[in-house]
Amino acid sequence: MTLTPARPPSELRPAGALPRGTVPARRWRRRRVAWAPYLLLTPAGAVLGLLLLWPLVRIAVMSLQEIGLRQLRGAPTRWVGLDNYREILADPFFWRVLANTVGFAVVTVTLTLVAGTLVGLLLNRLGRRMAAFVASGVMLAWAVPSITASIVFRWLFNDTYGIVNWTLDRLPDPLAQLLFGRAEFAGFSWFNSTSTTFAVLVTVVVWQSFPFVAVTVLAGCKTVPTELYEAARIDGASGWRTFWSITLPILRPVFAVLVILSTIWDFKVFTQLYVIAGLAHRDAYMLSLYAYAEAFASPPRFGTGSALAVVLVLILLTVTVGYVRLTLRQEQL
Amino acid sequence: MRRLALNTTGLVVFAIAVFPVLWMVGTAFKPTPEIFSTTPRPVPADPTLSHFAEVLTGDLVPGTPFWQFLVNSSVVAVATVVISALLALLAATAVARHRFRFRTTVLIMLLVVQMVPLEALVIPLFVTMRRLGLLDSLSGLVVTYVGFSLPFAVWMLRTFVAAVPVDLEEAAAIDGAGPWQSFWRILFPLVAPGLVATSIFSFITAWNEFVFALTFMSHQDGYTLPVALSFFFGRDTTDWGAVMAASTLLTLPVVVFFLAVQRRMVGGLVSGAVKG
């Protein structure tokens, strides 16, 4: 990180480097080495432990139990071993949900990265003022809360009064037929079938997440030495060739982090799914909403809900390990 | 020619990015007949504040006035910001200023917990909060959001703390300042810009959060704005004018804060990959 100066730890400085006769300061310095950092870390550590690590342990434990209404009211918990997992893995619906989750993540991550990278490269090519203008608009999309973004897209895709159907209806019929397989969009309901619901869902999430990719790619492009591009231009390389041979290799670590972060974010999408598809649309469930719906159904089934959440955590944990390893390689802690 | 093509593409990207937001605001100001017209107009012909009035004075959720949700959201967000900034500053000082045995472990843990899928923790946290008697209370939400915003806040603040020259603190120590004095008089004012940036980030986290507020708050008087909005949307999907007005009100503070902080946020998130 640019802001972090590589400074030798001040505590290791030989005592002679400090002016003589500053005993109080030196004593303080030695004392703070011993326990001060732990004291400073305690409050944050306690909160994180209670809110992030303890629940991770709890959810693993709960996934091995049967927890219904009676257990919530104080009846002793019943250990069921791996029964919850056996139950969900044997249920074809789980595999459908898993397919939804993975399919959604793959499509969304791909589209987000392609769109975001193109916009990032564009911002890099634009003039200063134009780039600032376009970037401010891109930032606006990023800033909108998930709940409002989802509701606004429900309105844009409204069957009768939505601007999307109105626009699609005005496309030349052969073109619309070619692109979407239908020419008539007046009154077309996007939220009745699972596939079109997912189309809207992917649109929302890509619209919300491409700005992060764009801005990151732009930041990365700024670090590429301009001499390389000049050399490429003199050698007569095309824009495409320049991207593949210069930009991409240099930004490889940036893209790796972007892929991993986007994957993590898209795997656990909840709010958008809750608003766009809704609890009633079971065929559109993904792991996060399925776990929630299981646990908070009536009667509640916290055990199976937890098992589903554990599956989600395990998938993301694999991705996280990749992220941490990459960050550690890049950054001097 | 090339310039023109680039700029045109730029404008198209801008239009796609802002269109949903503009359409939301536009709909919020349109009188009802204009909203339910089969030939949509981009700009309200006859702008009205009636939908905003309906949201502000009427019932998003029957029986609870709008200001209650606004107060809930604001209290939760502000409390989260204050607590999380304080804890993050202490922890950031520890990892940026001190060398100690588990320093690297702490930093790795910070990275790992940032990646914990919070949505998967709804179930155990619900049970824990229930046991602690913190369901249906704003403090339960505050504690939760502090936990969520803390890892990123520490990660971001540590670079600000590290950028403050140690010499300043050493000079203060030589002049006889104790650790507390040195912390408050020297370090705190110098990392204030970093604190502002991380605070805005925590504010946005708390203001936008939906899943936990939905799960923890069973009584409507405790709803935060996003939950109230989703309730209203679920109950009355046809009153698009009011839904868009409420969405606009919810979005406004975030957009303002976000535009203020975005530069630093990107820096913090991708610091692992982008080296200057």
Notes on the structure:
The complex is a heterodimer of chains A (333) and B (276). With 333 residues, chain A is mainly α. In chain A, 72% of the residues lie in helices and 1% in strands. Chain A has helices at 23-62, 69-72, 83-90, 92-125, 128-143, 146-156, 163-170, 173-180, 194-223, 226-234, 239-250, 252-267, 271-276, 287-295, 302-330; strands spanning 65-66, 78-79. Chain A is globular. The termini of chain A are close together. Chain B is mostly helical. The model of chain B is unreliable at 269-276 (pLDDT under 50). The chains are: A mainly alpha (333), B mainly alpha (276). Chains A and B meet through helix 1, helix 4, helix 5, helix 6 and helix 9 of A and helix 1, helix 4, helix 5, helix 6 and helix 7 of B.
Rg of chain B is: 23 Å
State the assembly state of the protein chains: heterodimer
Structural class by secondary-structure content of chain B: mainly alpha
Cα(first) to Cα(last) distance of chain B is 33 Å
Q: Termini distance of chain A? A: 9 Å
Helical fraction of chain A: over 70%
Largest sheet of chain A: 2 strands, antiparallel
Helix and strand sequence of chain B: HHHHHHHHHHHH
Shape of chain A: globular
Portion in beta strands of chain A: under 5%
Most extensive interface, chain pair and sizes: A-B, 121 and 109 residues
Low-confidence stretches of chain B: 269-276
Radius of gyration of chain A: 26 Å
| Beta-strand segment tally of chain B | 0
Global structural class of chain A: mainly alpha
Extract low-pLDDT stretches of chain A.
1-32
Shape of chain B: globular
Number of distinct helices of chain B: 12
Kindly report the average pLDDT value of chain B: 87
Question: In what range is the share of β-strand residues of chain B?
Answer: under 5%
Name some characteristics of this structure.
A: 2 strands; globular; disordered N terminus; B: mainly alpha; 12 helices
